[in-house]
Amino acid sequence: MSGRKDLDYYFYPESLAVIGASTNTYKAGYQIVKNMLDYGFTGKVYPVNPKEKEVLGLSCYQTLNDIPGNLDLIIIAVPSSHVLGVMKEAAARGGIKAAVVVAAGFAETKVPELVELEKEIVATARQAGIRVFGPNCVGIQNTRNFLDTTIEPPVVKTQGDISIITQSGAMGGTTLLFMEEQPAPLGFSKWAHVGNMSDVDVLEILEYYGEDQDTRVVGMYMEGIRDGQRFREIASKVTKEKPVIILKVGRSEIGSRAAASHTGALAGSDKIYDAAFAKCGVTRVDYLEELVDVAKGFSMQPLPQGNRVCILTEAGGPGIVAVDQLGFAKHAELAHISEEGRKKLEACLPSMAMICHPDGYIDITAAAMSEHHADALNVVLDEPGVDAVLLITVPPTFLPPVELAQSLLPALKAANKPVFVCFLAGKWCDEANAFLEANGIPTFKMPSQAVRVLDEMMERKKYLDKIARQEGGAPNA
User: What pLDDT digit, counting tens, does each position of 454-476 carry?
Assistant: First the structure.
């Protein structure tokens, strides 16, 4: 890789060493090596521990100097009291470009001598040209080269286009678990936990993801940032090209204090963050589940070109829930169905169907079979007054959900407008939801979730159009 950037050595190392590698299954140094081997990392892995001869079938080196050839990345999985010595050894060896420091017990403690110890570790690294993730950090994952430096719970690492930045290893790991729990595992590209941000911080990673061709959507768990101006500059640049979804905690006074004590980040006034996010085009969410929902919507569907949503439902109650949620939306509202469209719907739906009461709301009723769902979907997708469709169904016993999903797929795949699907009825619909998501169609457990995601996508379209007007171009598609 010619012309490599600093963070390339983290996400695309050709070789790495795990200092503190161990045969003890309860040690981080064991789990990290195991992750590399189990996942199939494409580069070279060198365990380092003077007390071990072999770790998981790999020859174990006594020191970093004993490792032959180039070494891009080191993962320091030793107690905090030994980290400085390891960094000095790495500096003396030369050629190492990046380090992940796993141990906690540094600046986040606010203990003066431990704050100074962290500074000395970083200064030693900088003099040797080594970048530092952490301390108090589990590092990175990259599905493109099967890299996993972490001790996070194992997940199905499906390749996708969502990349995650997190200031909490636990919250970052839970994000991946929630993504895995979707009807079909929601894929990701890269994942990074920054820990104390003694050197590499969330903003540098955000900028890196902005330029990463494998990243289409950025999700972030944020506790605080130190440089608001730099955040605004980087976020404004990235959001012109990619959605950036942030779960910012510390909204309350007590939560802000807790966030500051966790990583030493400056939480700051929540109103200031709100204003900055709005100005920069950042999509702010309130819950981790919402972060995953919104990321899924952005990843799987095109942006709506307007704010008009057609509710196409087989069941009245869930349909009303969706319409009610539209009443609280920032942008989304019911679509307009033309007279010609209404006549087409009357012709293809059961006689008891309730068409456009109100306009844009179509209850095809529980008598509807697969062909009724599909025909009605095709009609509303052709309507010029419809920018997005929310399809809701509670398949009765005489209508197998998978059969219904299969009949809908051609229209869903051909749509040039976002279509969100809610198949309701628990396990009865699990297979159908998995089928749809495996084919790139987002599904949601409840209509209210789908409406919130559509509303955020409309917010982004509005932001992009404003930027395009400011720059003298055409509205963004």
Answer: 999 999 999 999 999 988 865 55
